[in-house]
Write a structure and sequence with these properties.
Elements lengths: L4 H4 L2 E5 L3 H17 L2 E5 L27 E5 L7 H18 L13 E6 L2 E6 L2 H14 L8 E6 L6 E4 L2 E6 L3 E3 L10 E2 L2 E2 L4 H13 L3 E3 L7 H4 L6 H11 L5 E5 L4 H4 L11 H17 L5 E4 L16 H12 L5 E5 L19 H6 L10 E6 L22 E7 L15 H9 L10 H6 L6 E5 L15 H12 L5 H12 L1 H4 L5 H10 L2 H8 L37 E2 L19 H6 L9 H4 L2 E2 L10 H24 L7 H33 L11
Parallel strand pairs: 1-2, 1-3, 3-5, 7-12, 7-18, 12-13, 13-14, 14-15, 15-16, 16-17, 17-18
Antiparallel strand pairs: 4-5, 4-6, 8-9, 10-11, 19-20
Helix pairs in contact: 2-4, 5-14, 9-10, 14-15, 15-17, 17-21, 18-21, 21-22
This protein binds alpha-D-glucopyranuronic acid.
Alpha-D-glucopyranuronic acid (GCU) binds next to loops.
Length: 701
C-alpha cells in the first residue's frame, strides 16, 4: 500500500464504467483516503456502465472539475478531457507513422495501455478496463517519477495472452503431500481441511497481487486430482464460483484441474473412453453447468497418463483424442484445455540404459502435432526432465509448429531450495525464454509461447500460500512477481525486475538516498540461482536430492530407482550419454544447430555437459579445469557465496521490518547448513569414487 502514496496524495480523474474500472476506482480511493488526495469517477459513454449508478456525478466532458494530476480513461468513455484527447491523438498518429497508414485506427490492444505525461498531467488510456487496471499498476511502479518530467506516449501490451498460475493445492489434506503439493508457504489460500475457506479475504488480496504483476489466470487445484477434488467439477462447483467471484475484480480468470476419468469416477458413465458418446455427452453437460455458474471460466488443466493419473491410454486412445474430448466441451464457451506434456514412464528399470526419461515427452507428443483442436494448449515444462536448476530447454517446444504451446515454469521451489534457500529464478527463466531452438536467426521460446494467436502463454506453478509473507521465504515473493512480469514482457532484464520488486516491497527503505537496501538485495539475489546451482548437482546432471520430499542432498538417492533420473557415476566418470552416436539419441530431438552442438563433446556448453555426455573425471572443460576439479571448486564456492549473502543480510537489520529480518536470518542459517551438507556429500562422494584429490588440498570429509 505504501507504494500507492504518490497516487494517493494527488487529484485523479477516472473515466470508465463497469466492474473492473470500479476496481481501479476503489484502489485510487483507498490510496486517497490514506494519503489525502482525491478521485473523481465519471462513467460516461454508451457501453461503459454509466447506467450502473456508479457515476459520481461528474460531467461528461469539458469542465469536469479539473485540474487533475492523473487521468485514467477508457478510450470509449469519450469525450475525454483535452489532455487525454491530445495524448490519444498523438498515439494514433505515432502508431500510424510506425506501422503505415493502413493501421490508422489501431487500438491500444486487449489488456494494453498507453501512458504519458503532458502539460503536467499523467495520462493512462486503455481500450479495456483490464488495460486501465494494468496502467494503474504501471503508475504505481513509476512512483514519484510518474509525476515528474513530461513523458511521451508509451504503449504497453502483454506479450502472452495467457499468464497463468497453477496451484498444486488439494482440497482435502493428502496423506503424503499435505494441503499443498510441493508447497512451502503454509496452507492453501483457497482450501482448508477438505473445504473452501470461510474467509476469502486473502483470495481477493491475492487477485490484487496478481494484477499488480500482470497474471490473469489461476488454476485453483492440484494437477494430481484426488477424490475430493474431482467433485469440484460437479457438486462442489459453488466453491470454485466463490473463488472466481473474488478474483474477477482483478481481471483474473479461474481454471480447474480435472480428473480425466471424472465421468467414470463420479458414476456418470461406464467408461472414460474419449471416443465414447456417453462420455462426450457427460463432459458437454458438466461443462455447460460450469459456465452457468462461472460465465468467464477459463478452462481445464489436465495431467493424463502421467505418474499414475488416468488418461486416454487405458482405452487405446492417444493424447490428442483425450485433449480434443475436453476441448470440444469447452469450445462453445471459449474455454481452453491445458494438456500437460509431462508424460514418461515412472516405473522404468534402472538397469535398462536405453530408456531415457528426457526423450519421453517428445516421443509422445511430436507425432501428434496438427491433431489438436485450436483450444488445446500443450503445457510443456521448461526442461525435458523436471524443473531442475539446470536443464536444456525441452525439445517439445520447437517440435509442435501446428499446436499451441505453453511454457510451464516452477515458481514453487521444489528443486531449488524449497523456499528455505534464497534462489531468484528469473535469470534461469529469462535464459529459457531467450533460447532460440533454430539458432540465432530463428524465433525464441518467448516468441513461440507468446505468439498472438498461436501461443499458449506462460504457466507457473504458484509458490504462494497462507503464510503471512505469502511465500514462506519473504524473498521468494520476488519469484512470484517476476513470473508475472516476464509473462508480460519476456525480454525484460531480471535485475531490472528485481529492482522494481525491491522498490514496491520496501518503498520506504528502498527510497532512501544511500540505496543500501537496494544494493544489498541485488548482491544477495541477482546470482542466487547460480549459487544454488554451484552447491548442488554439478554440470547439468540434475537430481541427487533426497527421494520423496526432494530437499537436501542424496547423491545416489534416485540412482537405482524406477524414476529415470540417473547420473551413472562410477570410478572412471559421470554423466548421461544422450548422444545419437553412442547414447540414447535424445540430442536428435533438437533441430540444428543444437542437435549438433549438444551431440559434440567439444561444443556442448559446460553447464550441460553431464546432461548430454558421460565423461571421465579428467575431462577438460572449456575453462581449462577438469570435471572433478570443477565439482570441488564450485561446491566450495557455492557455500562461500551463501555465507557472504548471510552476512550481507545481517547488516540490513533496521532497514526492513524486524520480524521479516528475523525470518530471513533464520532461513539463512538453514540455507548455510544445507549448502554445507550438499558440498560435503557431493565432494566426498566424488573423491571416493574417483580417488582424485582436490588440487588445492582443501578438506573433504
Ligand atoms: C514433480 C513433482 C510432483 C508433481 C509433478 C507434476 O514430479 O514432484 O509433485 O505432481 O512434478 O508436475 O505433475
Amino acid at each position: 500500500d505504501e507504494a500507492f502514496r504518490p497516487i494517493g496524495s494527488r487529484r485523479t480523474l477516472l473515466r470508465g464504467g463497469g466492474p473492473l474500472a470500479g476496481t481501479v476506482h476503489e484502489e485510487v480511493a483507498r490510496a486517497c483516503a490514506r494519503y489525502g488526495g482525491s478521485v473523481r469517477r465519471q462513467a460516461a459513454g454508451p457501453d461503459d456502465g454509466a447506467a450502473n449508478g456508479r457515476d459520481d456525478g461528474g460531467e461528461a466532458g469539458g469542465d469536469d472539475g479539473g485540474p487533475y494530476d492523473l487521468v485514467l480513461a477508457l478510450t470509449a468513455a469519450g469525450p475525454l478531457p483535452a489532455v487525454a484527447e491530445a495524448v490519444l491523438a498523438g498515439f494514433r498518429r505515432r502508431s500510424a507513422a510506425d506501422d503505415g497508414p493502413a493501421v490508422e485506427d489501431e487500438g491500444i490492444g486487449e489488456e494494453g495501455y498507453v501512458v504519458a505525461r503532458r502539460d503536467g498531467v499523467t495520462v493512462v488510456l486503455a481500450d479495456s478496463a483490464a488495460g486501465l487496471l494494468y496502467g494503474l499498476f504501471h503508475v504505481v511502479r513509476l512512483g514519484e517519477e510518474a509525476f515528474g518530467a513530461e513523458r511521451p506516449a508509451e504503449r504497453h501490451r502483454p506479450a502472452a495472452r495467457l499468464r497463468m498460475l497453477d496451484h498444486w493445492d488439494n482440497v482435502a489434506v493428502h496423506p503424503v503431500m499435505g494441503q499443498v503439493e510441493r508447497g512451502y508457504a503454509g496452507g492453501s489460500i483457497f482450501w482448508c481441511d477438505g473445504a473452501l475457506r470461510d474467509d476469502l479475504t486473502r483470495v481477493a488480496a491475492y487477485g490484487r497481487l496478481l494484477a499488480a504483476c500482470g497474471v490473469n489466470a489461476v488454476a485453483v487445484n492440484n494437477v494430481n486430482v484426488h477424490a475430493a477434488e474431482t467433485r469440484l467439477l460437479t457438486d462442489h462447483l459453488g466453491d470454485v464460483a466463490a473463488i472466481a467471484d473474488r478474483l474477477r475484480p482483478y481481471g483474473v480468470r479461474v481454471h480447474l484441474s480435472v480428473n480425466f476419468a471424472a465421468p467414470l469416477a463420479l458414476g456418470g458413465t461406464a467408461t472414460a473412453d474419449p471416443l465414447d458418446e456417453d462420455v462426450r455427452a457427460w463432459w458437454a453437460a458438466v461443462t455447460t453447468r460450469v459456465y452457468e455458474a462461472i460465465p468467464d471460466f477459463g478452462g481445464y488443466v489436465v495431467k493424463a497418463d502421467s505418474e499414475g493419473q488416468p488418461g486416454p491410454h487405458a482405452y487405446g486412445r492417444d493424447h490428442a483424442d483425450g485433449a480434443n474430448l475436453l476441448a470440444g466441451a469447452l469450445a462453445p464457451f471459449g474455454g481452453v484445455v491445458h494438456w500437460r506434456a509431462f508424460v514418461y514412464n515412472h516405473r522404468q528399470d534402472w538397469r535398462d540404459r536405453s530408456t531415457d526419461r528426457a526423450r519421453a515427452a517428445y516421443d509422445h507428443f511430436a507425432p501428434l502435432d496438427g491433431r489438436f483442436r485450436d483450444n488445446v494448449i500443450l503445457q510443456v515444462k521448461h526442461g525435458p526432465i523436471d524443473f531442475q536448476v539446470r536443464e536444456p530447454v525441452s525439445p517439445v517446444i520447437a517440435a509442435m509448429p501446428r499446436t499451441r504451446v505453453a511454457l510451464e515454469l516452477q515458481v514453487t521451489q521444489e528443486y531449488t531450495g524449497q523456499q528455505r534457500h534464497v534462489c531468484y529464478l528469473a535469470p534461469m527463466w529469462s535464459e529459457v525464454l531467450g533460447f532460440r531452438p533454430w539458432g540465432p536467426a530463428g524465433p525464441g521460446v518467448a516468441d513461440i509461447v507468446a505468439g498472438d494467436v498461436a501461443g499458449g502463454g506462460l504457466v507457473g506453478v504458484s509458490n504462494a500460500g497462507d503464510d503471512p509473507y505469502w511465500t514462506g521465504h519473504p524473498l521468494a515473493q520476488a519469484n512470484l512477481y517476476t513470473f508475472g512480469r516476464l509473462a508480460w514482457a519476456p525480454s525484460s532484464d531480471p535485475a531490472a525486475i528485481l529492482d522494481e520488486w525491491i522498490g514496491l516491497t520496501f518503498p520506504l527503505a528502498a527510497g532512501r538516498d544511500d540505496g543500501r537496501l537496494r544494493e544489498a538485495l541485488h548482491e544477495i539475489m541477482d546470482d542466487s540461482c547460480g549459487t544454488y546451482e554451484r552447491y548442488t548437482a554439478p554440470l547439468g546432471v540434475g537430481f541427487m536430492v533426497r527421494p520423496g520430499h526432494h530437499y537436501g542432498p542424496d547423491v545416489d538417492g534416485y540412482e537405482y530407482t524406477p524414476w529415470g533420473t540417473y547420473h551413472f557415476a562410477d570410478r572412471d566418470g559421470v554423466g548421461v550419454d544422450r548422444t545419437r552416436a553412442t547414447g540414447t539419441g535424445f540430442t536428435g530431438q533438437y533441430p540444428p544447430p543444437w542437435s549438433e552442438v549438444y551431440e559434440s563433446l567439444t561444443r556442448c556448453p559446460d553447464e550441460l555437459l553431464l546432461f548430454f555426455h558421460h565423461v571421465p573425471y579428467g575431462h577438460v572443460l572449456h575453462d581449462g579445469s577438469t570435471v572433478i576439479q570443477h565439482i570441488y571448486d564450485t561446491h566450495f564456492a557455492g557455500v562461500e557465496e551463501v555465507e557472504r549473502a548471510r552476512l550481507r543480510w545481517a547488516e540490513l537489520a533496521g532497514l526492513v521490518p524486524a520480524a521479516l529480518h528475523a525470518r530471513v536470518r533464520e532461513l539463512f542459517a538453514e540455507q548455510l547448513r544445507c549448502a554445507e551438507e550438499w558440498r560435503d556429500q557431493v565432494n566426498a562422494y566424488f573423491l571416493r569414487k574417483s580417488g582424485v584429490p582436490d588440487a588445492q588440498g582443501r578438506r573433504i570429509p
